[in-house]
Protein 1
Amino acid sequence: DGGITQSPKYLFRKEGQNVTLSCEQNLNHDAMYWYRQDPGQGLRLIYYSQIVNDFQKGDIAEGYSVSREKKESFPLTVTSAQKNPTAFYLCASSTGTPQYNEQFFGPGTRLTVL
Amino acid sequence: AQSVTQLDSHVSVSEGTPVLLRCNYSSSYSPSLFWYVQHPNKGLQLLLKYTSAATLVKGINGFEAEFKKSETSFHLTKPSAHMSDAAEYFCVVSDGPGRRALTFGSGTRLQVQP
């Protein structure tokens, strides 16, 4: 089955630790995205990548880092510089076709800082 | 610049009655518009999309939306609510060069009463 997988589903972190969230897709999509969702809010864009070895900051990139070494993978690292990292993180991908930008979402990772 | 306003944070309907979720947008370009649905602790699923073709768009699970340029609206409707429709709904706009970035509304939580 084609789709997007995120792991782990739940993640707990102590303050001061870096953690990496995994996102893998087998849809052969060029573009991939990371969003953060907080209760009662819409999604906010952290980083996106339109092609391998290239990525761009979104609206709230501070305290996060990404890499895009393979087309199917776009891991997100939440660093200790992120002051309020507890949130639900969603990864998405799209064909990148300019005409429209339908995105396909993974099931999400819920990160809790203890 | 683009923005999306979902006019109701919560909507409650009885099973079998119509659903109306309201969305207004602003865009500097000719936008693409989407409605996504999110069930608790899940990723987002595309319900329907408008990409400058027919202004009345039909989606999955009996939902539809009408693009009204003069009113800058893209309201989501369904003739008869089902218990399984209870979820969070997001109106999303995509515009601008390359149409890479999506802007999400803050969401409308739909409750369906038996």
Protein 2
Amino acid sequence: EDQVTQSPEALRLQEGESSSLNCSYTVSGLRGLFWYRQDPGKGPEFLFTLYSAGEEKEKERLKATLTKKESFLHITAPKPEDSATYLCAVQAGGSARQLTFGSGTQLTVLP
Amino acid sequence: DTAVSQTPKYLVTQMGNDKSIKCEQNLGHDTMYWYKQDSKKFLKIMFSYNNKELIINETVPNRFSPKSPDKAHLNLHINSLELGDSAVYFCASSQVGHSYEQYFGPGTRLTVT
């Protein structure tokens, strides 16, 4: 069974204080690892897809990296508007195409 | 333009009732999904569907059924609602063979009293 574990559950940062979120996974034949951002009362918003170990993707202050066992979401010099819950998900090979999500990291960036 | 839309946004109903949630996507995607997010914020797949294949998560009660009138719509019908069905339900869509990322709707908060 595919499993995704995210840590920490919650993270409070001061504006400008860089940090990383972790996503550990076990999956049979990784097709892709996905990062989403979810604001309160809204649906998950797609951020990145990573397909193979060693791959990195960047978007503004966010950078996602992938190894064979985990992924990191690095946040550089965060701003209050980066506050949200960040979700990690994996997709296994096969026809189902469904995503298995972790429970998320709730990030709060204080001004 | 909204890519994936759901109606209603909020749904409050009594135990035993039957209700439906509608989902529409204008992305031209060929696969749609329903997810349930519980009070602990865990998102769990319920169904994935395209015009050839319906895949049902084995833990989903058969009171839940997806109905797809066409490629752009996937509605969720729920019979004999129970208190434990209270959650936020998200619709999503993706295009096979194109990165596989899924795009989510805004969610429907279902409260069963």
